[in-house]
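Researcher: Next sequence.
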Amino acid sequence: MTSVIQAQAAVNASILAIEQRLRASSDGDEQGKLRAAYSRLWIILGQLEEAIMEQAAAAVSVAAMRLEQIVLSANTSPFAEYKVALDRALVGIGVNVAPYTPATVSPPLAQKTVAPSSPQPQPGAQPQPGFANADDGSVWWKDLVLYYASFKGIPDGLKVASLSQWILESGRGTSRLAREHRNFAGIKFRERMAGHATPVDYTGTDGDATTYCSFDSIAAFVAGYWHFIRSGPYDGWDQLGDDGVKYIRHIASNYAANPAYVGKVLALFDEAAGLLRITLGTASISAGGTPDNAARLAVVVGHNRLSKGASSGAPINQMEFDFNQIVAEEMKSEAGHYNLNVELFWREATGSYSKEIQDAYAKVASWNPHCILELHFNSSSDAQANGLEMLCLSNEQAKSLAAKLVVSTTDLLKIAVRHADGLRLLKVGDRGWGSVSALPNIPTVLCEPFFGSNSNDCVAAATVGREAIGRAYLRGVRDWLEGQALDA
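Model: Next structure:
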């Protein structure tokens, strides 16, 4: 009944706002519409008290809060814009309105028993929340979040997962598809969506000009999204309980073509949970959080924002720093899946290479990690130079960590390894010595998974993607830690 109580509070607040506005209004058309809204709200309030609208309580809350906000903005918004917004807000509570026309002034409301001035929907009709009065879609987005926070029938973990999708797909409600068609999920129209949405021609961010779904309201979109999932090629999604991460992984292959889609959605779980005011508990581990006992992996992004290192050829066409920044961010977002706690560290340009390394690793030391990876890729004036290698000290712990990373990355990239076993053991004066020796008691590996100057290596890296390379590093560290535990 919590949603009903919230709806009652929202309706009462809207009633009070209308009473105040009616005392100040001198516009006859506005007064007539406010009187109709006032009467309708009292009908809704009675239905809520009788618990016959419990399932619609979330929609009532959103529609009533929106109406209250619009009425309270009457003195600060341009009058014409206010009247347009008011018309839309009235539709949200089930009041049919005519286009604005000037009318004579009516006396303000004095009693709560005012007859409706426009036809009323049948008792029990569910209002459809949401209207747009901002070009950037912020109003629609706020309505969606308010509505979904009170939505019943979907486990919290799946609500977080689906809202994370909508954040990504719609740019938090700013996409034209969301602003104009209430389609926050990028849903393309299928015959099975008839009755839930209408088709509209639209060119998506993938450049595909096709037919998408257009929804009449926020409520229609939410119902339509879950109908799309229930009726689509996602069999078994409803057997996943409250596990939002498994849900996203389960539907991703049929929902989106981008292999990085899962990681991008999972990275938004914390934001979605905050918007919905949901505490994920153990689910937050899957969404990128980590348990207290997780091993700490420090990830240093090679080079810096001013001096970005080597460049890579087609189809990557990125500098080392830019490429590995994405790899590192994916590692942090996915760390919970590998029972790891990842923290990112950056080398800041100081004009002195040695000071740059010293400062970065001093920050790493203060975090007290179990191991460290510094991310790079290789390059050479010889276009034939290729393969992967892991650079480290010659002590056994560093070598065993590097060996696990060689296995996990070669399994992914399917490219040659250098030095027979992929390990390059550094000594004083070698390139990379400053990094791997900065904290000699903490196993540190400088990762060079491919040559950016070799076209075949670049194709291999681009084929799997930066996010997959990040996950390969995580697998290698996880496997190394498990081996350490067995040896202990």
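Model: The chain has a mean pLDDT of 82. The two ends are 54 Å apart (CA to CA).
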